[in-house]
Each structure stands twice: as structure tokens, then as C-alpha cells.
Design goal:
- The chain is α/β, with parallel strands linked by helices.
- The protein is 41% helix and 14% strand.
- The protein is built from 34 helices and 27 strands.
- The strands form five sheets. The chain has a seven-stranded mixed sheet with strand order 1-2-3-4-5-6-7, with helices on both faces. It has a seven-stranded parallel sheet with strand order 10-11-9-12-13-8-14.
- Strand 6 and strand 7 form a beta hairpin.
- The radius of gyration is 35 Å and the shape is flat.
Length: 916
Amino acid sequence: MTPEEQAREQIDNRLVQSGWIVQDFKKLNPMAGLGVAVREFPTSTGPVDYALFVDGMPVGVIEAKKDTAGENITTVEGQSGRYANSQLKYISVDYRIRFAYEATGVLTRFTDYDDIKYRSRLVFSFHRPETLQALLNASDTIRNNMKHFPEFDETGFRKCQVKAIKNLDTSFSENSPKALVQMATGAGKTFTAITAAYRLLKYGKMKRLLFLVDTKSLGEQAEREFLAYRPNDENRSFSELYGVRRLKNSYIPNDIQICISTIQRMYSILKGEELDESVEDESLFEQSGVESQPAKEVVYNEKYPPEFFDCIIVDECHRSIYNVWSQVLEYFDSFIIGLTATPDKRTFAFFNQNVVSEYTREQAILDGVNVGEDIFFIETNVSRNGAHIMKQLIEYRNRLTRARRWKQMDEDEDYTSSKLDRDVVNPSQIRTVIKTFKENLFTQLFPHRTEVPKTLIFAKTDSHADDIIQIVRDEFGEGNEFCQKITCQADKPETVLSAFRNDYYPRIAVTVDMIATGTDVKPIECLIFMRDVRSRNYFEQMKGRGTRVLDKEDLKKVSPSATENKDHFVIVDAVGVTKSKKTDTRPLERMPSVSLKQLMMNVTLGAKDENTLTSLANRIIRLNSQLTPKERKEFEEKVEISAGNLAEKLLDAFDEDIIADKAGVNINDDHDLTEEETKKMEQAKAELIKDAVKPFYDPDVRTYIEEVRRCHDQIIDSVNVDYVLFAGYDTDQQANADRTISTFKEFIEENKDEILALRIIYDQRYKDRPMAIEQLKSLYVKLNEKGITVERLWDCYAIKHPDKVKRGAMAQITDLISIIRFEMGYGNDLTPFADRVNYNFMQWTLKRNAGAIHFTEEQMEWLRLIKEHIITSLSIEPEDLDLSPFDHKGGLGRFYDVFGDEYEKILQELNIELVA
């Protein structure tokens, strides 16, 4: 066949796949089905390659070209347009050609002439006849509808969300196929996306949208947000207006408008394959070798054709999915919206650099949308330098079964920090970190708390996580509920995650993968890194677990001793993660993954395609690089081939030179293969594949390959006792404190008139000044809007002036006065207001008791209560004595009985003396 004939054959196949009946003009029957494609239909300007009929009427044309014309396919649009505007012979009724395709054997482009400023676009295949019929019956096109979005009601939205939504409206109106929303964690990406989805459904008249995630937990989180969303211009919730469904199997209902799915499940649906549900538990960020896997190939799916979704929203789209999963995204003839807090260069490239929102974490912190972090280092000798174990009888532990045994070492062992908790476990190192954390917890890290703030520890492996959990419980003297594991391998991780988010226990959670990215747990105030991370994006995502804002009332529900809104979080860096060199791409993770098991099962059940075998070869190559010499020898004995040779055979099966050599065929650019040579090549390839996959049919071999690294023994180093080299805040904390104090200075300047009216900074005494507590509360609300609390300010001044700032119990409003006075230079030292009142109270009572008349015990009880009231409220008035807690002692009446006619004088003295 000629190249043109080969292309026509592929075009015919794609048309048939898409539901069209393909006919020659000589056998024309436009009513043979809903959609009929007629070859070489004559027109007034010559025969068109294909004329498309829907329900008996001509609606479109196809201009076909050979494959090599693909590089110039856009130049063919003129020919398509000419045929579309020509008169089709023998048709006397009114008709209009609205649709045009340019096609080769491998690509298809499509134009809808009803679009304003119509533009051709690449599509996976031809639209189905029923799709074109629906377009013809619609009042207008989606692209035209999106040029007329109504004004956006900004009520209840942050500025960054408003900007993103308005820019998305503009992007859609300009027919941009892709748009990227870069928005800091916690700024409301999902809420923004749901708002955009609502506008696309209501005003763009889209029929169906796909919300893609990469883990089941993120899908569940998105589903909750869709169900809870209520538009500003509707009294009904989103789910009352539109159908929302999170996909849990391969069936997608036709009567829903929002489908929520993992990209893994959507791929399996398009391929018509069953999905191992455990694959959905693990983020693509955590899957071993995801970046080096070949692209996921999809084929046409009649049940879910390319036009099934009008728009795809890709959550956490910074994940390394484009080389592997791009065909899943681009299979559909859809607009694509990407959501991410941490894009990399590939993300920008994929979305054609169309960034509709750029809201960084730094800006979010300045706006009070996120909270910033302090970094506290714990550096131990073993963490930094590793250790040396002399040849001796020592304990070994099987990583998977945890079985222990003692045996003689073959030689001395030198291990570095990279081997720690993988090949060698040093319990003293873990214990030293946890003990140091505990020792600093209520002194330097969270001095105003009585319970451990919600803390998330990042571990290297499940085995490492188990070691950490046991030592945390031991060091804190707490039970099982205090510290728990939340990983994909844990039992009922979602239940534990929910408790960590909403309940008092657990106080500390340990994770490897499950809540490293994406998942919201707003009460987290401390992150402990006991694993290094070399990906810049991944590290930013992990930090994002602590950056969420939370108001005081919600924080107190899980951390009762909290007295302020969450205003910062602490990173405890036990491995140097904040200083290690980061890259834009994520290096391969050395961990066994479900996908390796799935690949081997796919091969066992008949998968012989290049993508599967190449991907499996890549996994075996990485596995081989992780094996010890002893394990490599064992691998060869068990599998009857070395890991390196096994991977090589898998790759060789698709190497054209090796296939030709086996087939005895000479291949070169000047020689086209004969039919017999092609058969020989195919036979040789089949034999190479059969030989390469033979080991994977043995279930024992599959089990061994999957568990070889997980089962290997770890040395338990009980010889080298670890010790702390340094524990303290990062020097960058000074810069963080400077930023907070600078913002506070701006606040004072902005509110100078109100501060002057309060007259709290011009006199060192508060004599006879009006105690305008409500005005102070109003000031404090403004300060909170900048993401600053009294506790945070106090800590910052303590960092900058440790010799002048005394730590103590915070009284919020009244301590704001102390800080303002200190900042304005009306005091040399910064001490808690409560300390000042307590000291003045002691001096006043000593002076009053110095004479012949002393206060009685009942009088002192009243006076102490009044002192506590002044600490929090600045003053006391007679009517306050009828409120709690005074009413329990008899109120103002009893106070008069106790103090007699001098009761008002006593109150006046306390108002003046205690705040002096």
C-alpha cells in the first residue's frame, strides 16, 4: 500500500471505532446509521476525502493526508475550509458544513466553525455521531458560552481566589486549552476549583467535568468539599444542583456532572483493566521510579470516548505525572485546569506557561492565609557522622517480620547517616532525638502549652516508623493512643487520620507517605523530620502539612491549652533536611511499591507490551542497585538469573538490533523489510519476550522479588550510644522574628490614632486612664488579621532581646499594652502584665497590712479574685462584682458586707495601684 492508502486505512479504523459507518460514494446510504462517513464525495471544487452525515444530513468533512504530512497538518485547514464552503453535489436541501477534521494515520485535528474565532485543535480521535448531533442541537458552543461569564460575586472569597477565578474566566473566554492555578497550601485551591467548576457547568453549559487526584484520601477530601459547597447565587448546595460521584469501580454514570477519580483508576477504566485498589493509597510522589516509567498508553474506549469530559481539573498537578500519565490527561477533548502549590519547570511547560494565579506561600504568610515556621535543629553524633561497629557477636533483625537473632559479624561495619534506619538501626539515635525534643518542648518550642501540640513525624520506612512509635511512647510515658502510625501499610489509616485531625488523641502521628502531601490536618503545629528529602517540591508539600491556619476555638478542641489562633508551626530538623541540596525533580525512592507487584502480575496474566516490560525492567534495575553482594548472589540462586541479566533480557526484547540479529535479518535505512523478513522479526521478538518473562510465572519468584529488600536483615547497633551535638533554633529564626516585629511596627503606625486615644504609651503609670478594653480588643482583631498573636510577638521579642524579655503566662489583650510600650521605648524590659500586677498586688497588700488593721482571709480571697480580673480586663467596676466568678461569692452585696463603706475606695485603689 502507498503511504496515503495506509493513512486512509487507519482513518477508516478510527471512524469505525468512533461509531461511524464508512461507505464508498458508489454505495452511498446516508441513512444506514446515525453517522455515516462517505469517501470521495464529489463537491463543486473536487471530491472531499470524507463527507460526514448525521441523521442523513451532511455536517462535516475530513481532509486525509499521509502520516509524513503531520508536520504541516495545519496548512491543510485551508483545504478543509474550501470543501466545507463548497457545494456537495446531488444535495438540493438546505444544509451547512459545521465541522472539519484534518487527519493522518496517527493524528486528528478538529474545528467547529460555530466557535467565535474558531481554532483547530488536536483530538485523540473523531467525535462520535451522537456527539456532533448534540452539538448541532445546542443553543451555542461551550467556547462561545464562556465568552459571556457574568460578573463574579466575590463575597466570602479571598483576594487570591478572586484573582484566580477571574483569570480562569478570561483564560476560558480566550479558548486557552490549559490553565495553571498556583496557590499556596491552605489558600483554598479546591474551593477555587469547585467555584470554577460551578461556573463552567452553569454558564459554560459543560455537561461533565473530571476532578483528578493521585490518592484515594485526596479524592475523599475533594468529595467532602464538593458536597459541602454552596454557591453565592443559589440557595441549594452544589450536590443538590449537580451530581457528584467519586469513582470506586470502572463504572461512570452518565447522569452525573462531577466525577472524582484517581488518575490510576481513570487509566484502568480507559484500558478496560481491573485496578489493584492499594495503588490508590500511595501518592505518585511516593511510588518508586515513577519518573523513569514509560508513558501510559491509552486506547480508544467506546464507553468513555474522548469527548466524555469537557474539562479536567488536576489536583496537586505538580506531581511527576506528565511523562507517565500525560495520555490519560490528553485522551479527552477537554480543557485542563491544574492546581498546585509547588509547580516545577515541567508543570509550567505542560500548562503552556498559562499561569492564571501565582500566589506563593510567602505572600500567603504575609496575608495571614498561611502561618510561617520556626526551625529547631537537633543534631546528634550518629546522625551527622554515622558510627563504626567492630566485628563481634551482634543482634540482627528481619525488617519485615521483626524477628531477632544474634550472629557473628563477618567484618567491621562502618555506616553513614544514609544507611541509618535502613541497613542499621541505632535505637540510641532515635531515642536521643525524641528525648531532646521532649526536653525542649515546653521550654523553647511551646512554652505556653501543657499538652504536646499535634505533631507529625516523617519516617524513612514503615520499619523506621515502628521504631519511632515505640520510643516516643516510652520517652513520654504514654500509651498506644498517644502516638500512632498513619501510613498506607497501617491498619485503618483513615480512621487514625480522622482522629488525629479531630480528636485529642493521637498527639503524635508517624507517617512515611500517606499525609506527606495534600491531606489537610489543620491542628498540626510541629513537624519532625527524621528522613531527608531531596525534591524541592516534595519538601514544600511536606512543610505544607503544618502551614494551615486555625482559629483559637477550633484549635482548643484538640489542644485545650491553646490560648491563641495558630500563628506558626515548628519544624524540628533531626536530619538536616532544611539544609540539604534540593532538586526540581524527585530522585528515585528506594522502597518496595505495590506497582512492582502489579507489573509482575500483569506480565503473568499475559501483558507483553513494551510499556509494561520496559517499566518492569526499570524496577529490576533499581532493585539491583539496592541489593547487597550477598543478596545479589541469593537473587541469582532463587530466580536462576541475575537481576542485571533479567532486566537486560526484558529490554532486549524490544531492541530492534537484537531482534534482527536473532531473526537473521539485515536492517538498514536503504532496505524495506520483505513480508517474510517482517514475519521473522515478529517471531524473534516473540521468542525474546517469552524467554524474558519466563521467571515471573513462578509465584515464589514474584514473592521473593517483591520482598527481597523488605525482608533483609538490619543490624541493631546497641554499641554506639548517641549524644546531642547541637539543639537550638536556626539562625534564620532571627530573620523570621525581624519580619514579625517589622509587621507589628507597621501595625502601630497604621493605628497610631487609636493607640494615642487609648493613651497607653505616654505615661509609665495608668492612673485614672479609661480602661478601654473594647478598643483594645478591636485593635487586637486587626493585629490577628495580619496573622500575628500576642504569644507570637512575645516569642519574637524574646528571640531578639533574650536578656530583656521574660517569659510567663500570657494575658493576650493586656499584654498587648506591654508590647506596645516596649516597642515604643516606654520600658526597658518586657515582662508579662500578670507579673507586673502580681508584684504590685503584693506591694499594695503589704503596705495596707503594715498598720494595726489587717485584711481578713475572706477579704484576701475577694482581693485575689479582683487581681485576676484586672490581669485580663485592666480594670474593675462595681457592676463587675455581680458577674462570674464574683457572683458565686455573693456578688456586690456580699462585697459591701465584707468591706463596708470603703468598698468603692478599695476598688479605686486597685484600679490605680495594680496597673501602675
